[in-house]
Amino acid sequence: MNKEAEKVKVLIVGSGPAGYTAAIYASRAGLSPILYTGGQPGGQLTITNDVENYPGYPDGVMGPQMMEDFRKQAERFGTDVRYGMVTSVDFSQRPHKVIVDDKDEIIADTVIISTGASAKWLGLESETRLNGKGVSACAVCDGFFFRKQTVAIVGAGDTACEEASYLANICDKVYMLIRKDEMRASQIMQKRVTSNPKIEILWNTETEEILGEEEVTGVRIKNNKSGEVRDLDVNGFFVAIGHQPNTQIFQDFIDMNEAGYIITQPGSTKTNIEGVFACGDAQDHVYRQAVTAAGTGCMSALDAERFLAEQELS
Ligand SMILES: Cc1cc2nc3c(=O)[nH]c(=O)nc-3n(C[C@H](O)[C@H](O)[C@H](O)COP(=O)(O)OP(=O)(O)OC[C@H]3O[C@@H](n4cnc5c(N)ncnc54)[C@H](O)[C@@H]3O)c2cc1C
Hints:
Number of helices: 7
CATH class of the largest domain: Alpha Beta
EC number: 1.8.1.9
Strand content: 25-35%
Subunit structure: Homodimer.
CATH superfamily of the largest domain: FAD/NAD(P)-binding domain
Catalytic activity: [thioredoxin]-dithiol + NADP(+) = [thioredoxin]-disulfide + NADPH + H(+)
Shape: elongated
Structural class: alpha/beta
Keywords: FAD, Flavoprotein, Oxidoreductase, Redox-active center
Low-confidence stretches: none
Mean pLDDT: 96
Radius of gyration: 21 Å
Bound molecules: flavin-adenine dinucleotide
GO molecular function, one term: thioredoxin-disulfide reductase (NADPH) activity
CATH architecture of the largest domain: 3-Layer(bba) Sandwich
């Protein structure tokens, strides 16, 4: 190690809505938190354009601007925001040991994990190019932009079915593109989409390319049985093939479900390790919204503050 270990009461890992909200509460409580931003300062919202469903912005706000506002608010109360990646942790004893960028050691009385989750993508060049310009991984977030229009959604699990049904309430038509001739989704969810007249399911269908220069104008699909290639006119393209929580570095210590989402005690953000709390998408595979991430970020700061008071460390 290059430097002597630094000591902190509250260490926040991640700079999305959950991490910054935890930082606002912890710094206003006089706990002088350090927050590490990770590789995506501001989190997932920095790759989207308009956010219209976060309370307090009546005219909507651009995702990057909103996260800039979060950062400024956290810094205003004294949060030490640092660019760096937590690369390993040792939660085997208290206080907890956290290594940043493989070199700097931090000794933390409490750790708040707010490392979020990353959407899985198909991996097409056109998908990356048109991300935020008609391509989205979140129907609840972006479906409204395509009201009364035609969209396509890729995925065959419960979430894909739920998102397709959500889109069908807003859009005129929803194509559901499914690679195989069956779905992974539960029977009840399958029934919900197959019985919806606005949803057309295209089986054995692969996405070849998303079409459009400045915005999505269509999608080129291929039937992997017949080889037939054709273009569908769509304005929006949704990817619902799953999310990967960014929790791998904690897996030796923290209880997680089989998908890697951190398990928290009901009604709190406590993990199985005393003094380690988790908030936001890293522990939430159900809601995955900025406002719910912020809500649990607030909870984790309050949980950390109470823990420190109980331990007489604050
Ligand atoms: C394209 C898109 C559009 C969306 N639109 C909306 C919308 O309109 N409204 C809405 O409510 N929600 C929207 N969402 C969902 C919303 O972005 C997430 O629910 C929210 O960002 C989750 O917040 P979070 O703080 O838990 O995690 P994230 O925003 O995912 O942030 C995670 C943070 O952790 C950091 N990190 C990860 N690993 C490490 C590490 N090892 N060390 C340090 N830091 C680390 C990352 O750098 C990042 O800063 C959208 C999502 C996407 C992808």
